[in-house]
Amino acid sequence: MAIRLSGMTSGLDTDSIVKAMVSSYTTRKEKYQKAQTKLEWTQDAWKALNTKVYSLYSNISNLRFSTAYNLKKTSVSDTTKATVKAGSGAPSGTQSLKIKQMAKAGYMTGAEIKADSEKTTLAQLGYTGGDAKLEVKMGDETKSITLSASSTMNDVVKELRNAGLDANYDSSYKRFYISSKKTGVANDFTITGSNIDGASALYSLGIAYGGEKTTAGTYSSNPYDEYAALHGVSDDETRAKIEAAVTNYNNLTTDAAKMNAQSKNLMNAVNYGYSYATLQGIYEKLDANNAGDSDKLKLLEKLGSSRDGALISKNGDSYDTYTKTTLTDTNGNTLYKYIDSDNNSHYIAAVADKDKDTTSYYDVTESTRTAYTDADGKELEAVPTGDGDTTLKVGDKTYKKDEADGKYYLQKEDGTADKTDFITVSQKTEYTIEAGAVNKTGIESASVAYDTIIKSMDEKTKSSYDEALASVQAFENSKDEVLGSDDKYSVASLTKAIQNAYAGNGKEAVEQLLAGNGNETDGFVNKANALEEAAEANTKKAADSNIVKELASKQKDSSEYTQALNDLLDRVNTAYTLQNKALFNSQVKKVAGQDSEIELNGVKYTGDSNSYSINGLTIEALAETGDSAISITTSTDTQGVYDKVKDFLTEYNNIINEMTKLYNADSAGSYEPLTDDEKDQMSDKEIEKWETKIKDSLLRRDSTLGSVMTAMQTAMMSSVEIGGKKYSLSSFGISTLGFLNAAENEQNAYHIDGDEDDANTSGKTDKLMAAINDDPDTVMQFMQQLSTNLYSAIGDKMKSTDLSSAFTIYNDKQMKTEYTNYTKTIKEWEKKISDREDYYYNKFTQMESAMTKLNSTQSSISSYFS
After folding, report:
1. Which of 172, 263, 366, 535 has the CB geometry, 3.0–4.6 Å to 256, for a possible disulfide?
2. H-type alpha helices, 623-702
3. By C-alpha distance, which of 312, 349, 311, 299 is closest to 329?
4. For 522-572, how does the pLDDT look when each residue is reduced to its tens digit (9 = 90+)?
C-alpha cells in the first residue's frame, strides 16, 4: 500500500474523509466476506458430520455378511493343558484334543571349565592352536565362526549370538548355556569344528558335544559321523558316494512332494464332494419348480464376473451367450457377440428406445470395404484410377501411390509429391442390421437372470448355495503343480470320480466314496492320512541326508554344482579326520529340539511350535496329556452377537442424535460473522459466544441433512421377511422412546429393552438376548438385511453427482465453487475500493497542491506591502 501524506496544507483528516466516501464499497466487500466465512464454517460442519457418517457406512459394510455374526466361544476341560480361541468358522460342538508332545527348543549345558570370568581367554584354558574354525548349523542355515587363542568368553558368546543362538557364560558355575531361539526340530542346532583347531577350541570351551559316552569309549552322536560316512578310499570314490546321496535325496523329496500333493487334493476333495452333492441337490430342487432352471444357473455361474456384460438366449434345450463388445454397428448401437460350436462369430445390435425405456436386439451383417483416410484421420470419398489402382481421385485432386510406404501422396503441378497431404488405404469392417431383421425375443441380461434365480431361493438355500458354489469352483479351478492330470489323485481325476459317484447313486454314493466302506484304507480322509504319513517318512529320511540338500538344489552340469561338490568333498575329508581325532566333553548335556504333536478328533497334527490354527480354532498347547483327552466345547457367543448389535445401535444413535440436534438447532437470527473492526470492540469470550451461536445454527432445517436423516430412518424402520414372516427392530425389543419420552433431540435413537446400561429400558424384558439364544439364525439374518438396507440408503446419498464427490453426503463441489467465486468477488471489490481511494486521494492531492500554490502567491503579494 502506498504511503500517503495528506491534509498537511488544508488541515483536513483526509483518511477519514476518504474512508467515509468509500464506505458503501467497503460494506459490499464485507457482505461477501461474511458470506464466505459463513460458507467456510458450513463446509467445516459438513466435513465433520460426513466423516462420522462415512465411518458408520464403512463399519456396517461387514455387518451385511453372516461372518460378522458367526461369533463363537470355547471352553476347555483342562486349562492347564491348553487354551483355545474360536474364530467365526469354528464348528459348534465338542471336540477331543490330545497333546502327545510339546515343542522344545534345542538346549545345551556346557561342561565345567576353568574360566573364572567372562574375560578369560582360550589360551588361559590351555588352547594352543591357531585360527579355530567353527560351524553353527540351524536347520538349513550354516554360519561360520573363527576364534583364536586371544578370544575371551565374552567373544565366544558374542559370536554365538551373531550366529543366531541364545548364548551365555555363567562364571559362577563356569559353564556355557546355549539354546536355539525357536522351538522345533527344524530350529535345532549343532556346533562343530570345521578344522582340527576348531574341534580343539570346542573341547577347551566345554561345548564339544558327541552324545553319551559308550562303554567302548566312543560317543553315541559324533557330529562328524554323518559327513565322514560319505568318505571313500579316494576323492573319486568320495565324489561318487556324495552323488549317490544326492540321487537318493532327490528321489525321497520328489516322492514326498508327490504324496503331499495327493494327500492335499484328497482332503480338499472331501469338502468338494459334500459341496458338490449339496449343489446338485439345489439344482434338482430348482428343476422341480421350473424345468431347465438348473442348466440356466450352471451357465450363469460359468459366466461369473462377466455376467454384467453378457446376454443369454434360449436355443432349444441349451442357451447361447452373447458377450458385450466394444464394437458398434453403423448407427452406433452396441454389439454383442456369440461364438457358435464351429467357432464362428455372430453379432446382434442392441437398439435402445429411450422413450419407452426398452432395448431391442437385431441380427447384424458383417461386411468389409476399402476405406480412404486423409492425414488428419478423416475418411474420404476416393475413386481408384490408373493401372492397378496406382492413383486416387478426390474431387479435382490426384493422389499417387508411393510403393515404398503404400501411401497415396498429392501430386503437385510440377509432378512432385506433397508429403504433407496423403491418403492411407485400409480394409474397414462394418456391421449393419440385417435387412428385414426382426426383434429377437427371449434375450435377457445374464446378471438379471442370475439375480432372478437366486432371489427365488429361500434364505437357507441361498446360504447353502453360496457356500457350496464357492467350494466347488475353488476346487475345480485349482491347478496341480506337482501331479499330472492323469494321476489318480489329481484334481481332474478326483473331480471326475466324485461326479461319477453322484451320477450313479446321488449323495449317498458320494458320501460312501469320501468316508469309505468301513475299511480303514477306504475313504478319502484315510487315504490322505496314509499318504501324509508316507510323505513324512520320506521327508524324515531326506532330512537324515540333509547334508547334500544344497548340492541337490543346483544344476548338475553348472559351475555352481562343481564348486559346491568340491566344498562338500573338503568337508567330508575334514569330518573323516575329526571323526577319530576330535575330543568330546563327556559332561556336556544337549536337549534336542522337538516338534509338537497333537491329535484333534483322532487326526494327528505336528508343528515346530505349540500353536495351531485348525478349522477356525486357535489352539495353544501348554502341557502333554498323554493318552488322555481333554474336551473343547464350542458354541455361539450369544453375548458377542448381542454386543455386536448393541455397538451398531450405539454408533447409529450417536450420529442420528447429532443430526437431529443440528437440524433442530435454534435460529441465529440476524447474527452474522464479525468484521475485524467489530471484533476490536468485543472481548475474546464475547467473540467466541457470538460465533458459536452462528455455527450451531448452520445446518438448521437444511434440506440435504433432512434428506439423509429420512433415508437412514426409513432404512432402520423397514421390515425384513425371513421364512415367510416379517420382522422389524421392534420384534426384538428394540425401539425409539418417541417424542414424549425421549430426551431433547434423541427421539430418533433406538433403545434395547433390558439393556442394563440404559436407564430408560433396563427394567424391561430382554427380548433381544432371548431371541439370540432361541433362534440366533433369524437374528443374524435380520441384522444382515437391516445393515444392507442402511448401507444402501447411505450409499445412495453418497453417490457422486455434478454437485458432490463420491462418499460425500453434501454438495462439496458446489460449496467449493461458491467459495472460489466469493474469493474472486472479494478481490474485485478490494480492487474497486483501492481504485476509488486512489481517485479521491488524487483529488485531495490536487486540492492540497492548489492551496499550497495559493498560499505561496499570497505570501509573495504580502511581501510587497511589508
Report:
1. 535
2. 638-663, 676-680, 684-696
3. 349
4. 788 888 888 988 998 888 888 777 788 888 888 988 999 999 899 889 889
